[in-house]
Amino acid sequence: MQSLTLESATEERGGARLRKLPRLHVKAFTGGLIVLTFILVGAFGPALAPHDPNKQELTAMMKAPQGIGAVHALGTDNLGRDIFSRVIYGTRISLLIAFAVVFVSGFIGVTLGAISGYFGGKIDFIIQKLVEVVWAFPPLLLGITIMAFLGQGLFNLILALVAQRWIPYCRVVRGQTLSLRSRDFVIAAQCLGAGNRQIITRHILPNLIQTSLVIGTFAMASSIIAEASLSFLGVGVPPEIPTWGTMLADARIYISTSWWMPLFPGLCIFITVLGINLLGDGLRDLLDPRLKRTGSGL
Amino acid sequence: MTNYFARRLAGTVPVLLLISLLVFLLIHAAPGDPTLLLLGEETNAAEVAKAKERWGLDQPLYVQYLKFLKSAAAGDFGRSFKYTEPVARVIMTRLPATIELAIFAIIIATLLAIPLGVWAGAKPNSWIDNLGTSFGLFGISMPSFWLAIMLILLLAGVLNILPTSGRSTYGIAGPEQTGFYILDSILQKNWRAVWDALTHIFLPALALGVNMLGILMRVTRSSILEVMTEDYIQTARAKGLRENRVIWRHVTRNALIPVITVVGLELGTLLSGSIIVETVFAWPGSGSLLITALNARDYPLVTGVVMTYTLAFVSINLIIDVLYAVVDPRIRY
């Protein structure tokens, strides 16, 4: 009797899984497709862009969008620069910054989190204090402060964005490492004489990849928005480099006269972030249902 | 309880100290001499030295930090270079505008997100759930400042129905009492000014609240889904209660606990968001003040605003933690 109920229970769960899977795939698939499209646009930007993104054409200033196939498909800005080309180059730079931020903060966060959770004691205390202090800053404000005092530039911007983004990795990884290090396979490795370093790199880190991937999608989305916000405020990327944020900053005073100037770069941010969030939700559901991903935090 | 609160309060002191040190060091790592910037290019060494002495910039760094710390503890961040007024006073005149904006953003976000989240969570995979989930996803993916620009473009530019900058139309509002325009106008029974202030605050509050709306909707939904599987909900249904009553009385009440925490956590994001949304709408709050101060390299003012925001953020988190312990008796302190 008992085995029967057990069996039907597992069967039911399996059934629910099967019913659920296609829907999840749709989500992850759509998100992945959007993200991939933008990555390809960024990668092949120079070949796709019809114009030089910085070429000023003073005879063709503030031209409204002319439609696909025309000289300036999405119109031109206040200096006569082609918006379509700028959006393409903007994709390239915005995504490059976001990827750099995600990888650097992931590397720092996972390393510190694993060390903190594995060794515990004093080093754990110090790292966790650091986490607490950095996390006590309202998000974006730390970025603005750092950028304001270090000055504009790609390197400074990546630094300013990494400053808080390693924290979610560090926190989650620390918690997972804490539970992993008392697991049988880690103890077995210790008994066989493996060193701490070997245990962390060979036995602990591989178990952290899935979670980090989900946090990574989240960090990517927030990096894109933060980069645009900082550039918009004039403390991000130097204004001569086309990114979605600097394009929006240029558009600010022309909102009432040229709607196409703020529309297209903003739409790119929105669609990309939407795609990343869809992909992240899908990945989370597929890989690690326990991880709650609400979009809160950074 | 008191003990727990005291312990948490004491825990924030080193955090604030370290933050103040970080801000202080960042300011001094900044390229460019503020004295030169203020006095202009046409100046001589004697004037620079005099100005440095007046502002205490000639002393060693640690002395400057200790002096800064001592006066900061008393709420004194010095005199603003730009406004030549005490920093605390400048911030105090701007703070009500930001608080008012934040309160309205939270009201808009919670009023829309919680019912939608409850409804979506109560009927998983229904049309309302799909609508709500898409809405939540849109909310978290929307850059608030771009939404702000688009709202200005659409509602103000094309339809021309709402004002797009400032807090009130010139000449309508009465004298300031609290600094909260809506409250002031209600106190003065100036209904035209109340309506005027409401029309001014609506667009910025909507733009500022949109991320919180998305997040709250998602948290409410998942929290409802979780509580729905609890045994006491089965019991409530078994008692023969109507589904509506089960959802709103039994499920929602228990599901709202994590939602409170998220509202608190998101307050910090809201504060940061206000910096950029205020800039777009020319809202005269402390967020746009920060950007003005940054552009003028007004270091005392920048420090003052950053420390005010951080203090607010730290206090909010503290209050939320304590509230959480009060609401959920299972949490031991």
How would you explain this protein's 3D organization?
The complex is a heterodimer of chains A (298) and B (333). With 298 residues, chain A is mostly helical. In chain A, 71% of the residues lie in helices and 0% in strands. Chain A has eleven helices and no strands. Chain B is an all-alpha fold. In chain B, helix 5 (87-122) packs parallel to helix 13 (299-327), helix 7 (144-158) packs across helix 9 and helix 11 packs parallel to helix 12 (286-295). Chain B starts with a helix and ends in a 6-residue tail after the last helix. At the A-B interface, helix 4, helix 5, helix 9 and helix 11 of A face helix 1, helix 6, helix 7, helix 9 and helix 11 of B.
Our estimate of the beta-strand percent of chain A is: under 5%
Most extensive protein-chain contact, per-chain counts: A-B, 46 and 56 residues
The major β-sheet of chain B equals: none
Helix content of chain B: over 70%
Poorly predicted residue ranges of chain A: 1-18, 293-298
Overview features:
heterodimer, A: 298 residues, mainly alpha, disordered N terminus, B: mainly alpha
Please specify the SSE layout and strand pairing.
The complex is a heterodimer of chains A (298) and B (333).
Chain A: H1 2-43, H2 45-48, H3 83-119, H4 121-135, H5 141-150, H6 154-180, H7 184-191, H8 196-204, H9 209-233, H10 244-251, H11 260-287
Chain B: H1 2-29, H2 34-39, H3 45-55, H4 61-73, H5 87-122, H6 127-141, H7 144-158, H8 181-187, H9 191-228, H10 231-238, H11 243-281, H12 286-295, H13 299-327
What is the structure about, briefly put?
The complex is a heterodimer of chains A (298) and B (333). With 298 residues, chain A is an all-alpha fold.
